[in-house]
Amino acid sequence: MRVVRIASAVVAATVLFGTATACGSSKSNDQKTASVGDAASAAPAAAKPDGDPKAQLTASALVMQKAGNSKVEVDEAGDPDPSTGDAHWNNPSKPAVDLTSKTDGKPLHLRVVGADAYLGTEALGAKAPSGKTWMRMPATSALGGGLQVAALMVNPVVQLTVAAQSGKLTKLDPEDVGGAKATHIRATEDSSVLIAGMTGLSAEQHAAVQRVVELEGKTLTVDFWINDKLELVKLQEHGDAKGSQDPTTVKYSGLGKAAPVEAPAAKDVADGDLSKLLG
């Protein structure tokens, strides 16, 4: 899930060269997985800390689905500063994520509202369109596709449900997360199954997600830490392409208390991709 890193790299390249790099297309996949809603609705009302890992993941999916949103912190290996912000997943067809990171010491604002992805222009400096504070990125572009992945990959209901239904599960020793004991479950799954589990996407969005997720490799390992309230407090994933030394970690807090995430005002938005606007 190298979303922030991809975004930072594209922004840096744009500032230096005024160009954006496009990703190549991938083959579509027809693999099916059960819907997130069906799986969460079938979850038990509670799962014991020492119980079956599949039941625990499924029960946690129900809890997170009910919460609908949270504060998030995304920490990608090799990046000095984590991205922080708010994520909403109560409407699978209209994800909403607002993250702030840094690139070259400047704030980097990344926002997704449904099918639209936005980049705050502050990090672009003098190359930003005059008077515009946001740029809208098409899902088919490298950066737009990366931002769509951000919204989908931080969705805990998708992650928990796919792992419960399609992953090879291992229960590890409990660990302290944020000062409280959490059950630790590891899932190994095929990346194509995770992509198939992301429903409600347009063909362009699905292709963009596939391009970015497959950079991780064909197999993903996802670790989940679930507290005694069955809330997912932390997940960490890595693909077989780079291995466990290059993980992405997402932490969840303030369930149900995320700030609203809305599209920027139309007057503040420049449309188009970076190469056309700045090249």
Which terms summarize this structure?
279 residues, alpha+beta, outer membrane lipoprotein receptor (LolB), chain A, twelve-stranded mixed beta sheet, 8 helices, 29% helix
* Share of helix, binned: 25-40%
Number of strands: 12
Which architecture does the CATH hierarchy give at level 2?
Clam
Percent strand: 25-35%
Number of helices: 8
Distance between the termini: 28 Å
Mean pLDDT: 77
How many domains in all? Answer: 1
What's the main sheet like?
12 strands, mixed
The name of the CATH topology is: outer membrane lipoprotein receptor (LolB), chain A
Level-1 CATH class name: Mainly Beta
Shape verdict: globular
Largest sheet, spatial ordering of strands: 7-8-9-10-11-1-2-3-4-5-6-12
The radius of gyration over CA amounts to 18 Å
Computed structural class: alpha+beta
What pattern of helices and strands is seen along the backbone?
Answer: HHHEEEEEEHHEEHHEEEEH
User: Which regions are unreliable across 5 or more consecutive residues at pLDDT < 50?
Assistant: 13-43
Task: Write up what this structure looks like.
The protein has 279 residues and is α+β, with helices and mostly antiparallel strands. The protein has a single domain (3-19, 50-259), classed as outer membrane lipoprotein receptor (LolB), chain A. Helices cover 29% and strands 30% of the residues. The chain is built from 8 helices and 12 strands. It has helices at residues 3-17, 36-41, 53-67, 142-153, 156-166, 191-196, 203-213, 274-278; strands spanning 69-76, 83-88, 96-103, 106-113, 116-120, 134-137, 168-177, 180-190, 219-226, 232-239, 248-253, 269-271. A 12-stranded mixed beta sheet has the order 7-8-9-10-11-1-2-3-4-5-6-12. A hairpin with a 6-residue loop joins β1 and β2. The longest helix is centred in the first third of the chain and has 15 residues, at 3-17. The protein is globular, with a radius of gyration of 18 Å. It starts with a helix and ends with a helix. Mean pLDDT is 77; it is low at 13-43.
